[in-house]
Amino acid sequence: MSGKLSRCTYKTESSPSIVSSACVGGKTEKQGPMRDYFDKTFPDDYCGMDTYEQAESFMQKKAIELCLDKMCAKSDDIDFMFGGDLLNQCTGTTYGVRDLNIPFLGIYGACSTMAEGLLLSSVMADNKVGSRVLAVTSSHFCTAERQYRFPLEYGGQRPPTAQWTATASGALVVSAEGNGPYVRAVTIGRIVDMGVSDANNMGAAMAPAAAETIAEFFRDTGKQPSDFDAVVTGDLGTVGSRIVCDLLLRDGFDIRENHKDCGMMIYDPEKQDVHSGGSGCGCAASMLCGYFVPKLRACEIQNILFVATGALMSPTVNQQGESIPSIAHAVWISSSKEEN
Questions:
Q1: 279: which strand partners?
Q2: Domains, the chain, ordered by start
Q3: How confident is the model at residue 207 (pLDDT cuts 50, 70, 90)?
Q4: What is the pLDDT of residue 340?
Q5: What's the confidence (pLDDT) of residue 298?
Q6: Is the pLDDT of residue 153 over 60?
Q7: Cis peptide before 33 (omega within 30 of 0)
Q8: What is the pLDDT of residue 339?
Q9: pLDDT per residue as tens digits for the range 310-335
Q10: 3-state secondary structure the chain
C-alpha cells in the first residue's frame, strides 16, 4: 500500500532513490571517531574564510559540489533544492548556494532540517515534480554559540546537559530513479512542547517530539523496531536518548537494542569535551550522508528509520521565559525497494 497512510505518514509509490550524498566537517569532527566517514574535513573552523559565517556557507557549497561530483552531475542537472541552517534568515544556506543557479526553497526545522529536506525531496520525486532534488543543511559551533548563547570570548561554563554544535554540512540528491538506497515512507512530525525552557538541555526538550513521531510511524505503517537495523535520532545526546527510549517503552515500542543517536556517534565523550554529545543541523546531516547512506548502498545494513529532531527556539523568546517547542520528522530508508 502506498500513498497517504494517515495525517502524518506517507508511503512512497516509486521508492525514490538517494543517488548521491556527501559531507564535510571541521576541526573537532576531524578529531572524532567518525573522521573517516567525512568526505573532507578542515584543519580549522574558518575553513580558509575570513569569518565563521562565511565558513559555514563555504561548507555547504563544498558539500553540494562533492555530492554532485560523485554522480558526475552539475548544478544545472538539479531541478530543485531544499536547504536551511540555524542562522537568522538561513543565511548560512543562502550565501552558500547563491551562485549555483538551482531553483531554491529555503526551509527551517532547526536540527531536524535534514530530515525535513529529505522527506520533501522524496515526496517531490515520488510525485514526479522533479527528477533530481537536492537537500542540504549545515551548522557551525562558533556561529551557533554566539547567536543562541554567548559570544565566544565570554567563556561561560557549560552545564553537563549542554551539547556541542557540530561544525559540519551534509548534502544529498534524491531521484525518481536510481539504485538505492530508497526512501520508503516518511512521517511529518507535530510540534511538541513539554515545558522545558533550559536552552542548555535541548535533548530533554526534543525527546518527546522524537518519541511521538517514532510511535506515529510504527502505528501507521505496522512496523516494529525489530524491523530496522537502527532507529537513528538526530542529536538527542546522552540525556535525550535515555528519555526517548523510556517514553517509547511506555508506548509499547522498545528501541533500546537498535537505537543510535548521531549526537552520540560523532564525538568521543571520553577524549572530547562535548558534555552530552553533538547537536546542530550538520550533526545528523553528516552522519546520514557520510555513514548511514553508504552502508545502506553497500547493503551492510538493510533498513533505518532516520528521525532528526529540532528545537524550534530563538534566543529572544527563550530569554522572555518561553519554553522550547520541538519537532521531529521520520524517514524510512531501505537498501531495497521490496520488503526485507
A1: 165
A2: 17-175 (3.40.47.40), 182-334 (3.40.47.40)
A3: very high
A4: 55
A5: 97
A6: no
A7: no
A8: 65
A9: 999 887 887 788 999 999 999 999 99
A10: CCEECCCCEEECCCCCEEEEEEEEECHHHHCCCCHHHCCEECCCCCCCCCCHHHHHHHHHHHHHHHHHHHCCCCHHHCCEEEEECCCHHHHHHHHHHCCCCCCEEECCCHHHHHHHHHHHHHHHHHCCCCCEEEEEEEECHHHHHHHHCCCHHHCCCCCCCCCEECCEEEEEEEECCCCCCEEEEEECCCCECCCCCCCCCHHHHHHHHHHHHHHHHHHHHCCCHHHCCEEEECCCHHHHHHHHHHHHHHCCCCCCCCEEEHHHHCCCCCCCCCCCCEECHHHHHHHHHHHHHHHHHCCCCCEEEEEEEEECCCHHHHHCCCCCCEEEEEEEEECCCCCC
Residue 72 in grid coordinates: 558526475
